[in-house]
User: Fold this.
Amino acid sequence: MSNHSTPLETDWVWTMPNIGTTWCTCGRDPLTGEPLHQVTRPLITRYVLETLGSIPVDMTNKEISLVVLKLWNRQEITPPLADALLASVNAVVGEVQENYPVDTAIAVIKHFSHTVVIRD
Ligand SMILES: [Zn+2]
Assistant:
């Protein structure tokens, strides 16, 4: 399970529907139901750069959390956010690891951004 000598297949994450809270307050397209503004790969990459100062080769769970907080403009990882993040790691990677290739970490953040439900 932890032998990841070949890159993980994460393309599916980039076409998954958004079933969670929308990232911004611009609303959803009335025809498709999709948010008008999606969390895209370039957007996440920009937040990785802004949060960590550079694009790393690998990202730790802590670094993923920091990017998520900045991207979603939150102060802390509350239990519901932690649950959503764990679910996204499991969905994309299959298990929690110490760190992840940056492409995989960005896919985890994308998955989280399409599934997290924020109630406050
Ligand atoms: Zn917007």
Q: What stands out?
A: The first strand starts at residue 58 and ends at 60. Residues 79-92 form the longest helix (14 residues).
